[in-house]
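pasting for ref
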Amino acid sequence: MMKQLIECVPNFSEGQDMNVIKTITDEIVKVDGVKLLDVDPGKATNRTVVTFVGTPEAVVEAAFLAIKKAAEVIDMTRHHGEHPRFGGTDVCPMVPVSNITMEETVRYAHQLAERVGKELEIPVYCYENAAFTPARRNLANCRAGEYEGLPKKLRDPKWKPDFGPAQFNPRTGATAIGARDFLVAYNINLNTTSTRRANAVAFDLREKGRPVREGNPITGKIKKDENGKEVWIPGALKATKAIGWFIREYGIAQVSINLTNISITPVHEAFEMACIKAQERGMRVSGSELVGLIPKKAMIDAGKYFLRKQQRSVGISEEEIIKIAVKSLGLDDLKPFNPKEKIIEYLLEDPLDKQLVSLTAEGFASETASESPAPGGGSVSAYVAALGVSLGTMVANLSSHKPGWDEKWDEFSRWAEKGQKLKDDLLYLVDEDTRAFNKIMDAFGLPKSTDEEKAQRTTAIQEATKYAIEVPFSTMQKAFQGFEIIRAMVDSGNPNSVTDAGVGALCLRSAVVGAYLNVKVNGAGLKDKIFLETVLNQAGELVTNAHAAEAEIIKLVNEKISH
């Protein structure tokens, strides 16, 4: 139920007339569910790179409207620029950011490509992960011949577009739509002013590596093999490009790295390898710099990597993990690093998404005690479950760092990590339960003057009612999963905290039963009886099992504290 996010980075063949670009980006910002992050025009290339992020359906809609507008306002017969191109919307990659797989992102890219080809009649080639054939994975192959060679290319059966007509439209050209991994621009700070030495480290790191030279290793002629091909020594990091440079503003040299696939080479691995290679050449890495934005997962992965190196539990809060990542990578070496300004998900946060969980404990209680019907039992059940899981997680973290239990740190760290994930899911459901209630109220408030309006209102009420059943049912499922953690902590966790785990079990049982009451009352007006019966049967079984799990755990707790 966590929000899925996709980044979209369309490149438009116009970088000189910002009025034209604004008419395109205006189409993007009018779509609910997306946020425009960056507009980067280039005069020499006559090209503008636009970056926006949002939920998958909203991104597809915004991208389509932008491509449609670009077809109206960009005339490729008049375009000239230094960058390779073959269309008004030259490329439009989609990038998975959070809670979404590459496979899912590819499906959305194909949806967009099909719609552009069908509705706008623009030839579309799918590239990178969205490619239908190996030859089309490489964007350079799809764009070979550029705009000028497009008429001939479209006549070639081997280069029939994946979507849209195999006909040359002089005004729009063609478009490449793809799905790729996130690219991170990342600079490593060195304690030197030498560009040459920074370049040496860059060549050690980058995938391309460095050429083998005859005689002088710097100025010598590049060696060739028996087939006349240049001989290169590959670098240490896959999916990376790198170069060394001197930054006058900071008075240091840096290794500037493009991490083209952070699932292959994540930020923390690039940093660690840079430290090794710099040290081998008599230098030291003093920190690093993130250029642009980064997905939250990349920072979480980095923080957990460094925690594990210390044999510390990774089952701590997201905020603390990111703090560890910032300090370990030295991201505040040159200037303050604010995660709220650099992590994509934080830029997209809507305060309304966390109206309840952002309150103080006193504020939440006061809001619940007010005359408003929401938050109600569903939100409170989710919050009680979050507290129960948090108690189990606390015991796991205390056990992970208990003196004399050093060999067990990883076992308890895994339990704590699982607990943190459950806690976050349940906190999301605290506000989601109130949003589900509000959806029902909104549906009942729809107009009902005409037969069509009545039908639409009835459908909206039924859909909202079904969702108002699904949310507390999800709370039941998540809460019940917490018993596994609680039981493990009572069995083998820090004995000094066994009663804390016991209280956690009481909270989880209360949450399951409380959410069950909401499932039943919200289902009263649902017409889909098959759906309702299925959910009620599963929910009833969860209640029975929750009572049994609580009784077993409390019995075990009492046995342990009576010894």
